[in-house]
Amino acid sequence: MNEEIRNIIKRALKEDIPDKDLSSFYLFNEEISFGNFIAKETGVISGIDVCKETFLMVDSNIEFKLFKQNGESVKKGDILASVRGKTKSILMAERVGLNFLQRMSGIATMTNKFVREVKPYKTKILDTRKTTPTLRILEKQAVRDGGGTNHRMNLSDMVMLKDNHLKAASSLKDAVNIVKNHIDESIKIEVEVENIEFFLEALDSKADIIMLDNMSNEMMEECVKLNNGKKLLEASGNMTLKRVKSVAKTGVDFISVGGLTHSYKSLDISLKF
After folding, report:
1. Whether residue 131 is found in the same domain as residue 247
2. Which helix (H) or strand (E) covers residue 85, if one does?
3. Are residues 209 and 93 located together in one domain of the fold?
4. What does DSSP say about strands 124-126 and 73-74: parallel, antiparallel, or unpaired?
């Protein structure tokens, strides 16, 4: 388990159990219980490993058996995992473990819906940095488990010159050249454009990727023709499940969807003794 994820789990448990679980501490001693994690709706699983680690962090003697893995599809009624151990330990870990599992599975499920919509095309579904502060590593894992592709993890991963960067610079090409002269050759540069005029300027620059921001499908089709395979193209802005297939049809390489990590619905999963 990644140490950063372990630290997230530790903080979550500390938040939920700052002292003791008053509901269970005085009620149970060495009693043993057994329970199953059950999917209450169809979806894609993510975070089952994080859930398991949560329980083991509370009590290393808990037996946690996995029946489903991250990235697997499940239907209503499927048993995802079982847990056996001290009753009070299971109850202490239950809410935090489920919080991770339900939320990450919600992201994976939503991502998978987008991925299936664009399956006939070459287009990949990307996430964004619109993530819950301090939980990005988990939410981006969930996107991968849903079949999506991670965009940059942070501001140090790659260069992305968006509208505010470019408005403050003398020109798009100058901005790209300035940054290009200061970074390693392996680091990619992406620029955001909103119309054909700026697209042509970006096409003539040393940028590696051009983001077509809030463009109509017709305008994106024109950009794909003008690009003729020279650079990678990413479509962004108001990407809904209803629209995404028609955007992929334009021929863009990527479609970024901020909603994957900020507008998802948690998957309904319960732990039943």
Report:
1. yes
2. strand 79-86
3. no
4. unpaired
> pLDDT tens digit string along 171-197?
888 899 999 999 999 999 999 999 999
Range of the domain at 220: 116-262
**Across all residues in the chain, what is the average pLDDT?**
96
Question: Total structural domains in the chain?
Answer: 2
Are residues 40 and 126 both part of a single domain? no
Q: Are 43 and 136 members of one domain?
A: no
The secondary structure element, H or E, covering residue 58 is helix 48-58
**What gap in Å lies between CA 212 and CA 98, rounded to an integer?**
38
CATH number at residue 178: 3.20.20.70
Read off the pLDDT of residues 12-55 as tens digits, 9 standing for 90 and up: 999 999 999 999 999 999 999 999 999 999 999 999 999 999 99
Note whether 8 and 132 are same-domain residues: no
* Residue with tokens 């991502």, as numbered in its chain: 111
- Look up the pTM and report it: 0.95
Residue type, 165: H
The residues assigned a catalytic role are 95, 130, 162, 192, 213
158: DSSP letter: S
Residues 256-263 have a mean pLDDT of 97
Dist. CA 263–CA 83, nearest whole Å: 31
Question: How far apart are the C-alpha atoms of 236 and 190, rounded to whole Å?
Answer: 13
- For the chain, state the CA radius of gyration: 23
Sign of the alpha-carbon torsion through 213, 217, 219, 220: positive
